Amino acid sequence: MKRWDLRRVLPMIIAPIAALVLAALVSSAALLISGKDPLEAFSAMFDYAFGPNSGPDVTTEILNKATPYYLAALAVAIGFRMGLFNIGVDGQSRLGILAAGALGAASFLGVVPGPLRVVIMIIVAMAVGAAWAAVAALLKVYRGVSEVISTIMLNFIGGAIFAYLLTTERLGVKAVGGEIVSTPLLKSDSWIPGMSLFAGTANKMFGFAFVAIACGIAYWFLVGRTRFGFDLRATGLNPSAAVASGVSPKRMVIATMLLSGGVAGLVALPEVLGRDHAVTTSTPALGFTGIAIALLGRNNPVGIALAALLWAFLDVSNLPLDLLDIPKEIVTIMQGVTVLAVVVAYELAARVGRRQQQRSVGAATGEAAIVTLGIPAAIAAKLGVEAVSAPVEPPDSTAPTDPTVPGKHREEQS
Amino acid sequence: MPADAVPSSAGGPPAVELRGITKRFPGVVANHDVFLSVSGGTIHAIVGENGAGKSTLMKILYGMQRPDDGEIFIGGSPITIHSPQQAIRAGIGMVHQHFMLADNFTVLENVVLGAEDEAGIGAGARKKIQQLSSQYGLGVDPDELMEDLGVGDRQRVEILKVLYRGAKIVILDEPTAVLVPQEVDELFGNLRELTREGLTVIFISHKLDEVLSVADAITVIRRGTTVATVDPKSVTARDLATLMVGSELPSPEARESTVTDIPVLTINGLTVSTPAGRALVDDVSFTIHKGEVVGIAGVEGNGQAELVEAIMGTRAARGSVQLDGNAIGGWGTRQRREAGVGYIPEDRQRHGLLLDAPLWENRMLGHQTEPPNAKGPLLDIAGARRDTEQIVAQYDVRTPSIDVTAGALSGGNQQKLIVGREMSHIPKVLIAAHPTRGVDVGAQAAIWEHIREARRAGMGVLLISADLDELIGLSDSLKVIYRGRLVADADPDTVTPEELGLAMTGAAAGSSREESA
Known about the structure:
The complex is a heterodimer. Chain A is an all-alpha fold. Chain A is 66% helix and 1% strand. Chain A has two domains: 1-34 and 331-387, no CATH class; 62-326, no CATH class. Chain A has helices at residues 6-33, 38-50, 55-81, 89-105, 114-143, 147-165, 209-225, 227-237, 239-244, 249-265, 269-276, 287-296, 301-316, 319-323, 329-365, 367-371, 377-383; strands spanning 173-174, 181-182. Chain A is globular. By secondary structure, chain B is an alpha/beta fold. In chain B, 54% of the residues are buried.
């Protein structure tokens, strides 16, 4: 068996594809019920996203949408790998971006060169996200509060703090003539320039995408190649075995929560640094999308990237459906079914993989069993029994049990 | 025993008959071509090594697994059993190895749970229980609270549960695993009582002496198939063992002494308490020297698990633990392991393995900070893989590759991997909890040999086991634990399993620490 055994990997690749096909079928059924042509809907979506007319624009938009999705899913995945459910990416990212946005535009940092200010913003966003996650971590470690509960509640508190601070009396400003409250506009030297990917569009891909890619690589390295990552995975696979192996569960919970919260702090930065140049009340919080994408991508850095792209495609390309009088919500159905189906499909794939492995172990080690099946003839002769290695009749004939004393037990034999 | 109380089976059909039962499972030993004929009113033992397929066979009979092939006859008529409910209706009852009882319920409540239709849940049920209890001499009081009962009593409640549901054929899966020798004798008395009343007992075990003393007929299973059915009167334990394994029975003898007078692990006044203040491990003190195996005998649940966890640092404890002169009582588990404490945990799947991770990652577990698994803060994957290959070869782990998951291996091979992993770090002291539990005879002998070898090289061993032969055979000194206290010392050269068993029931507590000799 090779390191990358196809029989083991194949089910893991088939699973998400099967889930997607199922999701497409279910949404097709929903469309048919409402009297629409599913093929028309899907082809309109594809045409909008990748066709010659709107393709260059929309594909770039999909990439830009996928970048924060990717970061949100990475944040969730870090926790998932050790069996920790950080539902609080939402609150962590909001507070992180608000702190970063306010600081980045603050006049006292005006003297700092732009690129350095970007670095400061990144660090601050991560630190604040991590600090908000630390509340849940400390509650879990010292008070036994489930992180699921505490992070959900901290989302509400974080959202309220965000709303409280982002008002014109505090951190917010209102553009002249506008109604939108935002942090002051960043100086243009701390904008991250975009990249033109396609001809025929003015849209540019966020430069922050490279930071997201770097985060993905760092995640892969940390989880797969470091001692810390091993402790993390071991805790996720078998907490009690991890403890017995010397992992300190408390330290692990805190470290993982901090990391997860830190990445969560980055979620809104691509848009703020690359497009909006300010934090607005509509700056998105993507915690729950992140959970769905992490599930879909199997906590794998490449899988998450593909899942984030798919999610972004579905979110962006539903625009033309309205024109065809097809309800957009069909995309939401598709996303929901995909996540449900993928969870089931991965579990099935894991079972199939496990069976394959057992079979291969059985095949490799079972050979000897057949050879030694029969009783050595000498022993059989001594005991007066027949070897039943190939029995063709019930063993009554081979059973020397004395039928005349069926109920009698034997006396103690020394 | 009056033979006339027994329905004669000489003329009638067997109570249970299996013909050509075959069950295929991926990878694990399945059943194939199983032929079994159990006469009514007898105790029929089924023996075989762990993993030989005994339990699967009984699960088939009890409707928990469906055979791929073959026929089942009850009282001469063919029957298909798809669920335990059907099995119960056919008069088949099963007493599982692990009791399925609610502690905070009374005996009555436990018995009627799920069988409320039989005789209600009140006076009728109580009367039926009392009647069954006296008829079969079980001595069960329906109003006693389950948590107040000992292991032997609980087992009788389990048997009563089965009888209450009208079973005429009672299957007992390794019923003696949790009992001390005295309780085993009581159980056998109960079983004889059952057969005297005309019931049929199928008794699964791998303890040959017990089987020989209680069974009327013995069927041997090896590698998933019935090898022979023999009369216990005409065979010896050694014959049976030979049938079971196809080779000679190994013995754990470790007689040539390698004990030095250099202490390697010194435990002093170790105490583990529940949050409520009850002592689970109570003021335990002992010393393990280099080259010494110290065995701890005791009925499970008397503080052995907590003692081990306290030494490993996964459970808070008071008292002092010294490893090679260093006080390690305040250290974390990782620091202790790095300092040379090897650990073979009691429950390998829960505490010793990552079942869904490949073998080479499991080889790192517990030593993920040490070479060859790590270089600085990074993992040394190539080093770990190389070393895993070596462990697989040296410890005879049967696997097609080191990339299969640990969960795909059989229990014995999982255990060999753990033993190899711990040994290859040359621990100063090895904490071995039930190192050969659930391991087949061949692997057992190999594990014993590895422990003996390491002991010769100067390793100290704390051996905790339920297998008294293993304890007596491997240990240089023996201690008996009872309710968290070390209540007796025994000399493994002279003590018998019976004496040890008596001490394990607490008989020696408070009287003398000189149990043996």
